[in-house]
Amino acid sequence: MFQIQNISKAYGKRQILKDVSLTVNDGEAVGILGVNGSGKSTFLSSVAAMYANNPEVSIGYIPQENPLLDELKPVDNIKLWSKASKASILEALSSEPLCHLGINSFIDTPVKKMSGGMKKRLSLATVLIDKPKLLLMDEPFAALDLTAKHDILGFMGLHLRQGGSIIVASHDEDIFRFCNRVFLLKNGILYDTAEFQAKGISYVDILRSE
Fold first, then answer.
1. Fold held by 1-58+133-210
2. pTM, 2 dp
């Protein structure tokens, strides 16, 4: 279980997050819904920063922006984010659960020649190589085709079945159907969407309520 407590963040006079708290259970996926600029990315990056210097908490943060270097191939990109040796990385990519990302099928391809789906898989691998318990995922489906979405969702499900947890910020309804709980981030405050869902209100309509 992860306890996220009392996160506040402001840019100048604008309060982005107002004393936000959230509990995430083992094996649970929590979705964060909100319009552009509502603070979803700020929330995820703040959670990552909060635990950055705590060796007892294992967190992997996958930002919306591509963290990869275009000139490097997969293993070299992974080595930028992990202390693991090249041999250990290659072994991990061929074993459960990372083998499901299919990195070996483009292991010699530099990032600049990869598709969006390949880049997303590799971004996941750079984080998952060190086996984090909690994944923070910012718009994981951005610019992906249906096949890549299906594969990423499959891997997320595997992570949960192995006892991991996920917090994911997105606009994609497929993500929210996957999540155990979904919250709306509005005016710096998290609102549980269960009440909206109980009334048959769709996620699109929830966003329009902003």
1. Rossmann fold (3.40.50)
2. 0.88
Phi and psi for 61 in degrees, rounded to 5? -110, 120
Tokens representing 131 are: 């086996």
Direct distance between the N- and C-terminal alpha carbons of the chain, in angstroms, rounded to an integer: 30
- The string of pLDDT tens digits covering residues 28-45 is 999 999 888 889 999 999
- 182: helix, coil or strand? strand
Residue found under tokens 């020649």: 113
Which pairs count as long-range contacts for 157-162, CB under 8 Å and 24+ apart, including other chains? 158/97, 158/100, 159/97, 159/128, 159/135, 160/27, 160/28, 160/29, 161/27, 162/97
Report domain extents, the chain. 1-58+133-210, 67-132
